[in-house]
């Protein structure tokens, strides 16, 4: 079923692009992205089964429950025991594009804007401003490829385009954006910014401080949740814009995280940063993942080819699962 939905979605988007006369428009002509070759598969590790880790533990790994045994509610009243399985799942794609309507994972351009909604960058000495449109895709790669189907917590929702920023006035205008995140005014002060210093220091070593949800380490603030970043590094700026959209999807009620007991999911209006890591798929395949906030000085070199200002990101999400009989 996942493959059928993927094919139908690609056909529909391709038809839309044909009607707008944008198929083949550079740089959105690379075709449907191939997860087998563009996903860096080592990012799924470490994989934990009953407390035993497969793969080396990384500073990027979220804090795992220590007990190998878990208990979930059952229909007959008594807790049902199970084995705890924790893993990183490639569930979502996000593209951050200068060209509106450029859907990089699908390889098509679906919108003719005549210059409206167009992104771009402006840079001065040690300062920069980057704006990009965003498309958020539900892309459970394992389910699409038919892998690990025996894991009960695997996302099997099928491929879908969940959000296009071009239709969101709150994304284009930071003042309108306060409609969905009015608390942003609380963090636009020196005290809140000073608190982000510790998160920035932690992010450089591969960690993050989840309680400082308004901070994105060396990438700046997670507010406002529009398509703008003030980073002087173009690659880092696009990573920051992609990370903001994870938070925004939670504020819109479209993001769920697995509960730590592994027995279900919960809405995530306030994101838990340590549950996510990013890997660039286009225009350059990144040989590794980065936690939210890690400075581009460490990882962004040689990842901005000339005239390539559109990016596609694989989002890995930490999943806690209780496998019961």
Automatic annotation (TrEMBL):
Signal peptide: 1-25
UniProt keyword annotations, A-Z: Signal
Xref: Pfam families: TraU
Species: Eilatimonas milleporae
Source species, domain of life: Bacteria
Protein name: Conjugal transfer pilus assembly protein TraU
Species lineage: Bacteria, Pseudomonadati, Pseudomonadota, Alphaproteobacteria, Kordiimonadales
Signal recorded as keyword: yes
């Amino acid at each position: 079923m996942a493959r059928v939905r993927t094919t139908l979605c690609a056909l529909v988007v391709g038809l839309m692009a044909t009607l707008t006369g944008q198929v083949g428009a550079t740089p959105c002509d690379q075709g449907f992205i191939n997860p087998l070759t563009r996903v860096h598969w080592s990012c799924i590790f470490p994989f934990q089964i009953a407390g035993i880790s497969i793969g080396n533990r990384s500073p990027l790994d979220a804090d795992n429950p220590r007990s190998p045994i878990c208990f979930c509610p059952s229909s007959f009243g008594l807790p049902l025991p199970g084995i705890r399985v924790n893993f990183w799942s490639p569930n979502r794609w996000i593209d951050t594009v200068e060209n509106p309507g450029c859907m990089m994972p699908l390889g098509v351009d679906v919108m003719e804007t005549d210059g409206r909604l167009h992104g771009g960058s402006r840079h001065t000495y040690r300062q920069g401003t980057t704006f990009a449109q965003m498309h958020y895709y539900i892309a459970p790669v394992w389910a699409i490829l038919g892998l690990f189907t025996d894991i009960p917590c695997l996302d099997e929702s099928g491929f879908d385009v969940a959000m296009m920023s071009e239709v969101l006035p709150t994304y284009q205008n930071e003042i309108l954006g306060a409609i969905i995140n009015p608390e942003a005014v609380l963090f636009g002060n020196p005290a809140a910014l000073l608190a982000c210093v510790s998160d920035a220091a932690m992010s450089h070593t591969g960690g993050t401080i989840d309680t400082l949800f308004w901070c994105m380490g060396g990438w700046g603030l997670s507010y406002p949740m529009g398509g703008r970043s003030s980073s002087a590094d173009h690659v880092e700026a696009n990573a920051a814009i992609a990370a903001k959209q994870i938070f925004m999807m939670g504020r819109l009620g479209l993001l769920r995280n697995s509960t730590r007991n592994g027995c279900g999911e919960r809405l995530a209006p306030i994101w838990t940063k340590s549950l996510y890591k990013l890997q660039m798929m286009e225009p350059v395949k990144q040989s590794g993942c980065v936690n939210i906030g890690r400075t581009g000085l460490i990882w962004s070199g040689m990842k901005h080819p000339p005239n390539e200002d559109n990016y596609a990101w694989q989002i890995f999400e930490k999943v806690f699962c209780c496998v019961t009989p």
